[in-house]
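Supplementary Methods, section 5.1.

A reviewer requested that the exact input to the structure prediction be made available. We therefore reproduce it here, unchanged from the version used in the analyses.
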Amino acid sequence: MRLGAYLRVSRAGQIDAWGLDRQETAVKQWSRLNRHRIVEWYRDEGVSGTIEAVDRPALSRAIRDIGTKIDGILVADLDRFARSLTVQETALALCWRAGGVVFTATAGEVHADDPDDPSRTLIRQVMGAVIEYEKRQGWRRMRQGMLAKAAAGRHAVGQYAYGYRGVGKGKSRDAGPDENEQRAVARILELRADGASYRQIAATLDAEGLRPRKAGSWSPMSVRNVWEREHAKSARK
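The structure derived from this sequence is encoded token-by-token as follows.
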């Protein structure tokens, strides 16, 4: 059978049990063992599992290709289709309505509803509800942890401002100074105190090899953001 492999991660660069690489490995192994051919690949990167199928570019394309390029869709696990029960059921219904078959690398074919076997629908929907429950529990635990850290005066989110990085582990993890970035922060404050403009500071930092975290070079706006944050911290002391 000609299958389209559908891969999804909720955020770009996601690393977890179902990152893109692991999903790809899982579907390749399953298709080989079950003698199916993956003829098309569909990837939605940075797309939440709560978004409807029609609003996902890759999944929408896969469903449109059913009957022409592919005979069905293969996913690593059902939660790659959706982490919300209602979204899952809608996505499956669209595939079946188009005449396609849906497979998962963990459980094989996801059978369409059968009026003579209502337990089939019940089991699938119960599993979908469990996936949704586990996701919401994860959100709840994460939010509680963030609130507890904030209440204790510690850094409460996963990303850290320029000049700082995560230090420690688990609940004790907090923002600590990054030695390399702190040199750039200190230089920004020094040059600004001497009357340099944000554009001049950006050019100086680039010339001195003090790089921003992600971009290839400094912009006046990024310099301004660092200066304003550090200036505000000093004013509160």
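The chain has a mean pLDDT of 80. These observations are discussed further in the main text.
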